Amino acid sequence: MSQSPPSAAGATRPEPVPVTVLTGFLGSGKTTLLNRLLRHPALADTAVLINEFGEIGLDHLLVERLDGDTVLLNAGCLCCTVRGDLVKALRDLAVRIEQGHAIRRVVVETTGLADPAPILQTLMSDPLVLYRYRLDGVVTLVDAATGSATLDAQVEAVKQVAVADRLVLTKSDLATPEQVSALWARLRALNPGAPLLNALHGDIEPEALLDCGLYDATRKHPDVRRWLDAEAWAEGHAHDHGHHHHHHDANRHDARIHSFCLTFDDPLPWDGLATWLEVLTMTRAESVLRVKGILNLEGEDRPVAIHGVQHLFHPPVKLERWPEGDDRRSRLVFILRDLDRATVEKGLRAFAESARQQAAIAGQG
């Protein structure tokens, strides 16, 4: 991890192509939603990469080939055996872009069985992918009728929800109001920072799903504010309802996953924070599902956004300015599994204080 926030990207770097990861458990309606989106002008010149678990892929046959840029990745789970194929497909698309082919966006539709974390790691680790693309966000679909049972039985589905930038409830017309309400509350508890959207028959405006990551610095302020404000909801929910979700049976995978936000009034030393993040990810990577933050760093006038998935962190991004009216506090949102808040907060504050002391000693010298 770099020990200082990077400078703005050089002028010679091409404008990175946004990549949207579309995930959700089996039967959640990903293909239906994708077909609707591809008819919209906002998704013009979009390349679609589709992965389906099994020897014969079918999803690519169900997606209307509007411009011929639909690529079926080799059969297998995108989170393991075909990660190399994902990189190869993105590299091939990059060559086509360089040759003048109009590709303004990429959508990766994952198999419903996929753990999304390795997919995000792939998008954040390959040098050429990092140079040509930016992860725009993770959109997770949840079936309103079967979502609760799926979350009970499938830990992958819980992780898909936990790492999402947008949660889209589908098939709510097939569920009772009580089912929808209970699922809504459960999704909010799992991921308080992601807006909850509703899509009937795949009908949803693309603007609600696009540009939802941290990487377009000129457009992130409303969304950054939205997910940073999740702390108040999460703490209020815990206060009002106690720890009721921990009392369910052992199949409730989300009892092991929780989200919280740490805030810091004073500017943070980047050296201390970066070192602590390295230690955390080296020792407990399997527990770090996702980290997102907007930071007020010592010596920096502009906010710095960071984003990580398990042991990989995207290079920090300097935002153009602080959101209007913001109090300029640093805020870090964590989505963790089997790792308590106290351990994380104690470690971060200790490393930050150590860095400050070392800087003070160096200044005296």
Automatic annotation (TrEMBL):
Q: Which residues form the CobW C-terminal domain?
A: 257-352
Query: Its catalytic activity?
Result: GTP + H2O = GDP + phosphate + H(+)
**A molecular-function term among this protein's GO annotations:** nucleotide binding
The UniProt keywords, alphabetically, are: Chaperone, Hydrolase, Nucleotide-binding
Give the GO cellular component terms, alphabetically: cytoplasm
Gene3D superfamilies in UniProt? CobW-like, C-terminal domain (3.30.1220.10), P-loop containing nucleotide triphosphate hydrolases (3.40.50.300)
For this chain, the family text in UniProt reads:
Belongs to the SIMIBI class G3E GTPase family. ZNG1 subfamily.
This chain's function reads:
Zinc chaperone that directly transfers zinc cofactor to target proteins, thereby activating them. Zinc is transferred from the CXCC motif in the GTPase domain to the zinc binding site in target proteins in a process requiring GTP hydrolysis.
Name listed for the protein in its UniProt record: GTP-binding protein
| Organism of origin | Dankookia rubra
